[in-house]
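Allow me, if you will, to draw on your knowledge of protein folds for a short while. The matter concerns a single protein, recorded as an amino acid sequence and a row of backbone structure tokens. Could you please explain, in whatever detail you think fit, how the structure tokens follow from the sequence? I remain grateful for any guidance, and I place the record below:

…
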Amino acid sequence: MHAIVTLGGFNKKYNFLEKKYFHVNSIAGQWKKLVIDIVKNGNYENENLKRKAFSIANQLYKEDKRFFFETAKNDLNNNIHAIKYIGRYLSRAPIAEYKIIDFSDNKVTFYYESLADDKERVELTLDTETFLSKLIIHIPPKHFKMIKRFGIYSRNVKLEVKNAMKRMKKYVSKYLKITFYQLEIWETFKLNPFYCFNCNIKMKVKKISYFNLRTGSICWKEYR
């Protein structure tokens, strides 16, 4: 599961409060508890399965394992990056063919990038039946809803929140309009010149240079 979270939220007066920092370890701990509670309190067919699930849940509580990882190192500051991020996981196969290294003697050798170890490459060799069982888990059922929205992303939000978001949208549209220069650079190089190429955060304009046709020289304009 991948989650896109807003950097802030609305207070009781429907004013948006920006949040510039998330304590990832704290969120990971809360997420771990929720997942283990689901395993522990599942609706199992018989008492034997229920006891096994209870035992596994208790063991996971004690182990120092994370079920939540921060994969996007930068903020998603525009619609294009958000759509690309979401789109990568909607039509992909459970495993890319190039990651399957070998298939022989009823065994499959493949590799994956471990999120727990900063995407370190890990190679595994499994028998065909085990490999297929792990593969099938990642195939969603027919008509399964791949994207779900909650909070201010949901369609069913309060009218006051909708109005507050409309005001924010007008403000953003007014001050963050895409210029012809930005559009041309994006279409040519797939880069937004107004955003930092390393951290993908919008930069503030301090000074620009341009060629003055009238004087035939390069001029500078500073912004305060």
Summary: The chain has a mean pLDDT of 82. The two ends are 44 Å apart (CA to CA). The chain has six helices and seven strands.
